[in-house]
Amino acid sequence: MIAVRYCSKSGNTEKVAKMIAEKLGVEAASIEEPLPDKVDKLYLGGAVHGKMYSDLRKYAEKIDPSQVGEVFMFGTSGGAFSIKTEFTKALSKSGVKIGDGSLFLHGFAPKIKADLNDKQIQELTDFVEATK
Q: Which domain of life is it from (predicted)?
């Protein structure tokens, strides 16, 4: 089973999560939505606003490796920054396997729900194809 979960304040990461989920043939949900009993692949995303959201960090640190096979990280940001380092640390604390692929899209203005440009859509498509 595949699941997509996200933590989004402005709606940009939610939009990306829903696009990923659509390409995978599943529904995206907030990290507040419990996972099914067993998930082979979890696509987990968040944004950077100075640093990683504490809700996402706590969620990532508590993933049960007996419930989740591997996690693929994705995220959005307004600039060149990424939560990848913080995200990797948090997931490492849980002991869950981190998948080889990740997606961090840049150029999203905070608090403005932006449309993805052609390059970002291609990056998202390539990410899904490489990890599904």
A: Bacteria
